Amino acid sequence: MIPLIALMELGGKHHSIRLWLPLFLVWLLMLPLAVLMLPFALLAMLLARIQPWTALRAFSDVLSGLCGMQLEIQIPGRSVLVHIY
Question: Are 66 and 85 in contact (CB under 8 A)?
């Protein structure tokens, strides 16, 4: 299943901000772009001799693998935490 929500926490020395980002809205906004890019992607797969179903399966596996990902960046005085559900 593709990730639907991301939690982003931006922290400073004295305060932190939590943001809930609805990723399903991002997927809906990217859908028209994906439809426009589909012919170019299919042409590239044909030229590179990549089977479309194999490429689709790999893309699906990458998106599904994002669930549960945590990214934490810390520098002196600031921190960023991104957790994808």
Answer: no
